[in-house]
């Protein structure tokens, strides 16, 4: 797929503003050439002492052309930039629309700093495609053609000289710039992405780097990456300046050529001397419109490289599939069924889940236990449609999740993951993530149920909850989920950082609120599982035991051994 196809589609969507900007640009360019040509002709005419009305008409024409040029240039800027920002908005929203279904798997393939550079830098770079790549050739060709027709009415050879100048500025100079640009193609952008990656990791891991004494080494890496980026930027800027210098040289070369050729034609009697200044001024003005051609190859390759990186990120296997239209019915408890589900992470040597088949009736309470790495958390990712199984099927209320819109699944689910994210703001801000208005009394009641009765709604929460302990983070996440109205509870180690007393109080309120709902609890602690309708024991991605607490204890299998180890450890404490 052509990386710039998405840009072409965005341009087609903004064709009205684009056509208006091209029209305004042509009028502004032609009016500029006419303005300076008329000025040169006016200066020449004053030598011959023309009638006063001639000077009045020429002066009025110059003023009108000046006003026309200013007005059309304003319109050209207005419509071209409006089209550019509208296309940028379409590209940004389109990119995010393709990116969201790929999370969280996309984070396993791309470092967060590099992904951030693509989301911000690469998307922003595409704004130059229309203004710096697609737009200038159209204006240059149209204005040059109009100028050549104008000059040909005075001298055929002048028109040929203008054609030579157009070929040099529109083809030769950009071609030379393009040849040199290939050697530094993409290096600035790659170096910028590398620096963003290093900065992001240092910020995220600052505390650990400081504790382990590795901060000076990472600072040196940052300085080296910054110096490399600066060197690449200087090299690229120098290359662009050389292209602009060549364009300026061609402009003066053609202007001197017009002056020389005009003098010769005057001597031969083929051109009236009063028109020489007019043609010289026209030649100097028309090349102003071609100045953007000198930097066009750089912006073109920059846009292509940015579009390629974005395409590689969000469309590794083609276009985004059509989104399913069915919605999970709201208001009823959700039944869950897994049939022969197998899932394997990319580049992993073994599956995370292998032929897992489960049935969770609506309104039931189920606990999933097992050692770390047994695939428990992957179950929740699959149920939330954050990942897609390699084989098998998952049914919610008898409907495959592949047919369900993920937004409806999320709205029907009350989820607490192992790592909950908290945004910088207040406790109230982090409780009201779902956008629903809640009174302070309701919020305080949820905090009390989560054993955070001493926390005020106006207390500040740092980014990622850095000022909260792990236990406070878990309780704040539980308070947040208690404010939701979903009928499917998916809880992944929600109380692992709490002491036994606090854990019991929190779970008591949680069970009371989820009465009649479908609840799936993933845990390592085995206390309090007696009240579960069903317990599922997993190991190495497979279900090895299933049944009620009493049944599994009686079997004296894996869960029984785990329970004995836990009791032994508690007794030693």
UniProtKB/TrEMBL annotation:
Record's protein name: Thiol reductant ABC exporter subunit CydC
Membrane-spanning parts: 18-42, 48-68, 129-150, 156-180, 249-267
Domain ABC transporter stretches: 336-565
InterPro entries xref list: AAA+_ATPase, ABC1_TM_dom, ABC1_TM_sf, ABC_CydC/D, ABC_transporter-like_ATP-bd, P-loop_NTPase, Type_1_exporter
Keywords: ATP-binding, Membrane, Nucleotide-binding, Transmembrane, Transmembrane helix
Subcellular location(s) of the protein: Cell membrane
Species lineage: Bacteria, Bacillati, Bacillota, Bacilli, Bacillales
Organism superkingdom: Bacteria
Residue ranges annotated for the ABC transmembrane type-1 domain, each copy included: 19-288
Bilayer topology term: Multi-pass membrane protein
PANTHER family: ATP-BINDING CASSETTE SUB-FAMILY B, TRANSPORT ATP-BINDING PROTEIN CYDC
A Pfam family matched in the record: ABC_membrane
